[in-house]
Amino acid sequence: MGNFLNGIDISAWQTGINLAAVPADFVIIKVTEGTGYENPDWRRQYQQAKSSGKRLGLYHYANGRDVVAEANYFLSKIQDCIGTAMLFLDWEKENNPTFGVNDYNWCNHWLSYVKQKTGVTPIIYISQSVMPVLQNLKFEFWIAQYANMDTTGYQSNPWNEGAYGCLIRQYSSRGRLSGFGGDLDLNKFYGTGADWDKRAKGVSVHGNNASPSKPGSATVQAPTEPTLQVAVDVMQGRYGNGDVRKKALGSRYDEVQSFIDHISTASKETLAAEVKQGKYGNGEVRRVVLGARYNEVQNLIDQQSNSGGMWYIIQSGDTLSGIAAKYGTTWQQLAKINGIGNPNYIMPGRKIRIR
Length: 355
What we know:
Elements: E1 5-10, E2 26-33, E3 37-38, H1 42-51, E4 55-61, H2 67-78, E5 85-90, H3 103-118, E6 123-127, H4 131-134, E7 141-144, E8 168-175, E9 184-189, H5 193-201, H6 227-235, H7 242-249, H8 253-265, H9 268-276, H10 283-290, H11 294-305, E10 311-313, H12 320-326, H13 331-338, E11 351-353
Parallel strand pairs: 1-2, 2-4, 4-5, 5-6, 6-7, 7-8
Antiparallel strand pairs: 1-9, 2-3, 8-9, 10-11
Helix pairs in contact: 2-3, 6-8, 9-11, 12-13
């Protein structure tokens, strides 16, 4: 089969497809979306592709809401398939209010969580235009970029190949192959069948001492997410209590527990100042991590906000530079007086001081 594989990705749009009749080295199948949708044909598609000797992939389409709930929903459907298929996160704009707002943190959390729970390192699917935002992820990419919308068969040298690195390239959504009468997404995997199998089985693809993980029973590693996100997960009971929590958090235990203890013991004035600096996030994240302290801290912030000055509530699509231009100031000044560490990451609904 050479040093690359040709394949397709399918969903409920291809319900009933006879995968035994369609030429493909691999088939990537949509399983879930959000926390409530399951492709009704995915089991049949999976079994048919497997029986016909095709390599397998399974993917979750993100809705960008509760990241752990979405990951767990996906994992609950594919538990008996772990070790047989590569796993993917599909990160797109449609039905995803977090897209363009908190891309990196959400995706990194989902990918890291799935890896921790399965021992299989997942791949992320994005359009090429999103690569600059997610380029620092320590995960491999499945990139979509089309030259045009013309019908085509498999291409050994897709348009723009070599312009950037990726594991899989999706180069057409109007592929036409024998055995199926409709459009298909066409993909090129840059590797051999053995390379695919290693990723499906959870074998490290770096170094010479790789060994397969037992499906579904990977060694638990300390979480890799930012402290705030781990603290939120702890507050929601996802790491248990006592010795269970200590074991699950591993080397992160003291750091995260100190963060949580500080919230319990600090004055409301201290917590309010830290909220304004962005330490506790916004919306539901802030509500969860502050827990029983939320109302007293938020009430104090509201009182301070109404005591003078000019304020603005961030809307979806806003940029700090755009807000600054609107009010005749600079984004650097807004970042300084509002304690914004990353000017490219501002959450809709947050109230910021203009002057």
